[in-house]
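All the exercises in this workshop are built on plain-text protein records. Instead of coordinates, the fold is spelled out as a row of discrete tokens. Once this layout is familiar, the rest of the handout is easier to follow. The record below serves as our worked example for the rest of this section.
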Amino acid sequence: MQEKIDSILQKYSYANRDSLIPILQEIQEEVGYLTEGSLISIGKHLNLPTSKIYGLATFYNQFRFESKGKYHIQVCHGTACHLVGSVSLIDYIQKLLKISTNQKTRDGKFSLEVVTCMGACAQAPVIVINGEFYKELNSESIKSLIQELIDRDE
């Protein structure tokens, strides 16, 4: 993992603090999430305190500090989805999987993320699991979808 981080940082050999967000994005894309070690490496590379980098990374909800589950569930919480029940879907998924937002299940199979908008407002409420869209959902359809994924692994 450190080799990947070092390789990315080498691309930014003459970087300054203006490169911080692109570096964070690229490391997260490559590694899957931001580790403590990656923040320390970035700090050394850009001559910035790790606390400043962590502060910036926690400000933006696009950054993760934990790996995703095998099935990464993203729930849209845009205006249209909110109006037709995304809040209750989020609550239902949390209870069903026994996790909170930005966590993964103990077995590592599922992770949950709430995103601002997916641009599929006419099909609200919408979720994405590993890049596949599911539309016009309710608690029953969510339950059967998650059960399908559990059964797939057995």
Remarks:
- The first helix runs from residue 2 to 11.
- The mean pLDDT is 92.
- DSSP finds seven helices and four strands in the chain.
